[in-house]
Amino acid sequence: MKSMTGYGYSEYQDEKLHVTLELKSYNNRYLDIIINQPSFLNPLEQELRKYISNNAERGRVELYVRVRELEEDLVLHLDRSAAASYAQTLRELARMAGLSDKIELSHLLAFEGILKTEKKRDLDNYRNQIMPLLESCFSQWEESRLVEGRSTEEDIKNSIAVIYEAIGLFEDKASEIETNIKTNIRKRFNEVLGDQIDEQRILTETAVLIVKYSINEEIVRLKGHLDSFLVAASTGEAVGKKLDFICQEINREVNTIGSKSFILEVNQRVIEVKDSLENIREQLRNVE
Asked: What pLDDT is attached to residue 201?
């Protein structure tokens, strides 16, 4: 069982580059991947997104990629046409103003666009640094989810134990319910008819009420759902949605037992079971 909440961090640095990756995740009904990275790394986004989607079933997963260049690799470009135009314009301006000042290099450099800088970025180089970091970051993130998942699983099993204990009481009281029905039917017939009792009529009425109020079938289905829950929870797969569905089925059977029972102990245990189920479903909101 894995939690949807997790955290991972990794970094790399050499004399030119410092890269950090941070992976965070939170509970969410579906898989929602958010990638925050410098715009020049946008060509890598699909590859990063695919890696995450191949390793996560659901949850909000946020990946932060931060890059700091310690030594920039720049290329300078001279716009010769612009330089010539600026120089020609300055000469004409000097003649018009009657000035004899010579045009200096500093005059031209004061204008924008004559010298242009371009950062050389090798996308493959960034990929070669980022992808191994992502694997390391993912390993930490996965381990943190497993640790929290084990804690959640232990808490859920404690709640399941409460339900199994309640089933033991339900089984003990199921025969008592049928005995009470038989006793009460016969008593009422005696009160109304005295010695003129129609045994066949008593049996028929008893059968009708037993079918109506017996909880045996609900108990069998309830045990089956709990067994299915434990089997699914132990697979190690993403079973959060499946377990929540099984909880709905368990809740349906427990509600039926509560509506049929007229025994106080059974009704009290039904309340305890519903409280345990609510705790389980609350925990499952953060299970992948």
From this structure: 67
Q: Please, what is the Cα angle at 41 between 36 and 44, to 5 degrees?
A: 90
Alpha helices in the chain, H assignment, sequence order: 45-53, 80-97, 105-109, 123-193, 199-213, 216-233, 240-260, 264-284
With tokens 């941070």, the residue in question is 22
Dihedral angle at the C-alpha atoms of 32, 36, 39, 42, nearest 10 degrees?
-40
Residues of the chain with pLDDT under 70: 70-75, 117-121, 184-186, 188-203, 205-207, 209-211
| pTM, full prediction | 0.69
The answer to whether 145 touches 288, Cβ cutoff 8 Å, is yes
Structure tokens at 181: 């029905």
User: How many CB atoms neighbour CB 55 within 10 A?
Assistant: 12
**Pairing, β 31-36 against β 59-69:** parallel
Helix axis angle, 123-193 to 240-260, nearest 10°: 10
Tokens standing for residue 132: 């191994």
Query: Which residue ranges form the domains of the chain, and what is each CATH number?
Result: 6-71+122-145 (3.30.230), 74-119 (no CATH), 148-284 (no CATH)
Q: 237: which 2 tokens?
A: 């797969």
Phi, psi for 28 (deg, rounded to 5): -160, 150
Spatial distance between the Cα atoms of 271 and 251, rounded to a whole number of angstroms: 11
- Is the alpha carbon torsion for 200, 204, 206, 207 positive or negative? positive
CA dihedral 34, 37, 43, 44 (to 10 degrees): -70
As a three-state string, the secondary structure of 156-186 is: HHHHHHHHHHHHHHHHHHHHHHHHHHHHHHH
Integer Cα distance of 136 and 12 in angstroms? 11
